Structures are given as C-alpha cells and as structure tokens.
C-alpha cells in the first residue's frame, strides 16, 4: 500500500464509523416508531383519539422548541418555508395522525399500521394524476403488488366488514396514507430555507391547535381522562420519545444515508409494529394477512427501487 492509499484509508475510517453510527441511530428510530403503534393502541383505551393526537404533537413540539432554543437554532419560518410547514402540519400530522388514531379504535393495530404505511404506493398514483409523472414498469408493478396485498387484507375473508366502524377505519387509514404521499411529493419539490428540524416544532404546533379545537368540539373537554402513572409513561413514549426524539434522529442521521437505504429502513416500521402488536396486544396473524403483508412489502420495496432507478 502506498503512502497516499494509506492516508486515504485513514480518512475513510471516521466516515465509515459515522455512517455506522447513523445506521444504529436509524435502527433505533425505526424500533421506537414501530413500538409506538401498540403503545398508541393502549393509550386509546383511556384517551379519546383526537385528544391523544393533540397531546402527542403538543408535547413533542414543546420538546423540540426547547431543544432548538438551547442550541440557539430556534427561528421563525420564512415566507418560503410556510407552504411546507402547512403541508406537513395539516396533511401529514393532523390528517394522517388524526384519522389514524380514530381508525385504531375500530381496526386492530396490525392492520392499521400496515394500511397506514402504504404511502409509497399512493405516491405513484398521486404523481401520475397530479404531476403527470407517467409511472415506469417498476412503479406499476409495485402499485399492482401493493393493491393486491391491500385487497387481501381488506377482503371479506380477512376483515369483518359488519363490525362497527370497520369500513370507516380502513377508509380513514388509506386516506391518511394518501395525504402523506402528497406531502412526500411536496417535500421533494420544496426548496428549503430553514432546516427540516428547525421547522418541525412549528409544523407540530400547527397540527396541535386545530386537533385540540376539533377534539374539544367532538370529544368534549379532556376532564374525564383517568390519569395514572401507566398512562403518563405511554404519553411520554408516544410524544417526546417516539415523535420528537425520533424526528431529531431522522433529521440528523437520515441525510447521511442514501435515499434507498432510508426507504428500506422505514419498511421496518410496519413490520415491527405488527410483530409488537402480536406480542403485546395478542393480535392474530392469519395466512391471508401474511400473504397480503408480503405483497404490500414487496410493492414498497419495488417502489423504493424504482425511485432510485429513476434518479
């Protein structure tokens, strides 16, 4: 090995260690996000869904405002960034989470997390219809696989459509996933003035205020919530840990890995959520659900692969 090669190898070692640490942090993020689904289901036994969504983003926003203030990076969004603040705050946080928590009252957690994370599939449809982006063969294959999986999971042989709220719950989850896909397309086209982390607490605040107002109107004042130590632990995990801390991890370490790697990382969230729901909530996985899960995951992998090939 020449001197120049040895020097290059030494310079590469810190970068490799940084990349490895980022992968570990992202793995922790995916684990926490996955575990937040059964934790949310347990909290919904005590807290109404819209109030739970408001508490989640309100507590997470306070944590991020405090973190950015300590770092000296707390700034007001500029006029350039307000559209993305509104898009993420209203569509991803308010609509996706609010509808998702209402749906989880009526749909078991395994199906809820899987239907919610069909977002990459709907991104193909939204890009096709709204942006005239003709899908490639890979994207069409991903969409067909995913839709076939959704069809199995939502079929009359797998879901009891006569159960109260079953149809509404599944529809809410799919509408939330479509809303999130619109946000993803907006994020790709937005020219950021401030960093995503600097804008995150404002997005959470923008989601919290209308969520709390709607919750007060539909669910009443949160005075009848039976507070105890177990509920506080669940709320701390769902808000400050699984929302604000994971957002910091995503912002700090997500940019240090490839888009394909990040896409594959997020595939772990529904898988962990489903496994945790089986272990902690006693959800049952049927053969038909497993087949639908395999098709949806295959569709997500193909969608991520098609995105990388397009770039």
UniProtKB/TrEMBL annotation:
Tell me where in this chain the EamA domain is found.
22-153, 168-303
Q: Classify the protein's membrane topology as the record does.
A: Multi-pass membrane protein
Q: Which UniProt keywords apply?
A: Membrane, Transmembrane, Transmembrane helix
The record's listing under SUPFAM superfamilies reads: Multidrug resistance efflux transporter EmrE
Spell out where the chain crosses the membrane: 23-44, 50-70, 82-106, 112-131, 138-159, 165-185, 197-218, 230-249, 261-281, 287-308
Mention any Pfam family matching this sequence: EamA
Instruction: Give the location in the cell.
Output: Membrane
Q: Which GO terms describe its cellular component?
A: membrane
UniProt superkingdom = Bacteria
Family note: Belongs to the EamA transporter family.
**Per its record, how is this protein called by name?**
DMT family transporter
Lineage of the species this protein comes from? Bacteria, Pseudomonadati, Pseudomonadota, Betaproteobacteria, Burkholderiales
């Amino acid at each position: 090995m020449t001197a120049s090669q040895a020097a290059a190898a030494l310079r590469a070692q810190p970068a490799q260690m940084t990349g490895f640490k980022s992968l570990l942090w992202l793995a922790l993020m995916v684990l926490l996000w996955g575990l937040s689904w059964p934790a949310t289901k347990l909290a919904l036994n005590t807290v109404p869904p819209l109030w739970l969504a408001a508490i989640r983003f309100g507590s997470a926003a306070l944590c991020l405002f405090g973190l950015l203030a300590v770092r000296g990076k707390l700034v007001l969004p500029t006029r350039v960034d307000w559209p993305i603040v509104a898009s993420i705050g209203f569509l991803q946080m308010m609509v996706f989470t609010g509808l998702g928590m209402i749906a989880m009252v009526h749909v078991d957690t395994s199906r809820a997390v899987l239907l919610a994370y069909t977002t990459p599939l709907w991104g193909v449809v939204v890009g096709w219809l709204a942006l005239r982006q003709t899908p490639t063969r890979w994207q069409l294959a991903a969409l067909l696989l995913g839709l076939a999986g959704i069809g199995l999971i939502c079929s009359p042989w797998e879901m009891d459509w006569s159960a109260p709220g079953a149809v509404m719950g599944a529809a809410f989850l799919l509408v939330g996933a479509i809303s999130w896909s619109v946000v993803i397309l907006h994020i790709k086209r937005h020219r950021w003035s401030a960093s995503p982390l600097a804008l995150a607490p404002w997005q959470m605040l923008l989601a919290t205020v209308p969520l709390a107002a709607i919750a007060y109107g539909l669910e009443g004042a949160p005075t009848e919530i039976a507070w105890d130590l177990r509920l506080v632990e669940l709320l701390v995990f769902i808000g400050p840990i699984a929302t604000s801390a994971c957002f910091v991890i995503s912002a700090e370490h997500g940019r240090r890995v490839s888009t394909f790697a990040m896409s594959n990382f997020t595939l772990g969230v529904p898988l962990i959520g489903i496994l945790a729901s089986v272990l902690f909530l006693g959800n049952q996985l049927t053969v038909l659900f497993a087949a639908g899960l395999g098709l949806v995951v295959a569709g997500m992998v193909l969608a991520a692969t098609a995105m990388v090939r397009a770039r």
